[in-house]
Design brief:
The complex is a heterodimer of chains A (111) and B (114). The N and C termini of chain A lie far apart (31 Å). With 111 residues, chain A is mostly beta strands. In chain A, strands 1, 3, 4, 8, 9 and 10 form a six-stranded mixed beta sheet that branches. Chain A has a four-stranded antiparallel beta sheet with strand order 2-7-6-5, with no helix packed on it. Helix content of chain A is 0%, strand content 53%. In chain B, 36% of the residues are buried. Classes of the chains: A mainly beta (111), B mainly beta (114). At the A-B interface, strand 4, strand 8 and strand 9 of A face strand 5 and strand 10 of B.
Chain lengths: 111, 114
């Protein structure tokens, strides 16, 4: 039988299109947010972070948007490539250097 | 530069047996983390070390889990005795600096308890 939690929200995107992955966080005291990418069989890999005093930050092909009013975080990937296929996690930092990960979102890039 | 190194990559044991995982962080990283990741879920913190001191072990099931980082460098995580529900990937991560910064993760140790 299938295991609970095996089915991740999945975003299927055509190669070359833009991807948007969303994350809702719960702790209004969180002051630091990070997006991680996890490929099959590997550990999470840092993509980009943002402090709570910012609402947007750009990296190479990626942009993170933070809306503290509704406790929402998003990751935009421009010109999605096959190598972007992975599970993406958002994480929120709070308190004494605590970091809590959200549920993952699977991105599948269609060539 | 070598990344975070973990061993073993895979371990299959029967319930009630002990198991240990080893982690060598990135050189110079004073903060070391052990996370547990269940299938389809995000990593959950078990313990965080600043140098050799465990500064956050509130999520570590202390009845069967133990960890050490004796010289402030590499670390071991032990489970004794293992239960079926301990099947998961155990991830080690390290970072530099006091404030939560970029964590560098190892590839993890996948534990299967039969």
């Amino acid at each position: 039988g299938e295991s609970v939690g095996l089915h991740l929200p999945t975003l299927s995107v055509q190669e070359g299109d833009n991807s948007i992955i969303n994350c809702a966080y719960s702790n209004s005291a969180s002051d630091y947010f990070i997006w991680y990418k996890q490929e099959s069989g590997k550990g999470p890999q840092f993509i980009i972070d943002i402090r709570s005093n910012m609402d947007k930050r750009q990296g190479q092909r990626v942009t993170v948007l933070l809306n503290k009013t509704v406790k929402h975080l998003s990751l935009q990937i421009a010109a999605t490539q096959p190598g972007d296929s992975a599970v993406y996690f958002c994480a929120e930092g709070y308190g004494n250097n605590r970091l809590a990960f959200g549920k993952g979102n699977q991105v599948v890039v269609i060539p | 530069e070598a990344g975070v190194v973990q061993s073993p990559r895979y371990k299959i044991i029967e319930k009630k047996q002990p198991v240990a995982f080893w982690c060598n962080p990135i050189s110079g990283h004073n903060t070391l983390y052990w996370y547990r990741q269940n299938l389809g879920q995000g990593p959950e913190l078990l313990i965080r070390y600043e140098n050799e001191e465990a500064v956050d072990d509130s999520q570590l099931p202390k009845d069967r889990f133990s960890a050490e980082r004796l010289k402030g460098v590499d670390s071991t995580l032990k489970i004794q005795p293992a239960e079926l529900g301990d099947s998961a990937v155990y991830l080690c991560a390290s970072s530099f600096g006091g404030k939560t910064g970029e964590l560098f993760f190892g590839e993890g140790s996948r534990l299967t308890v039969l």
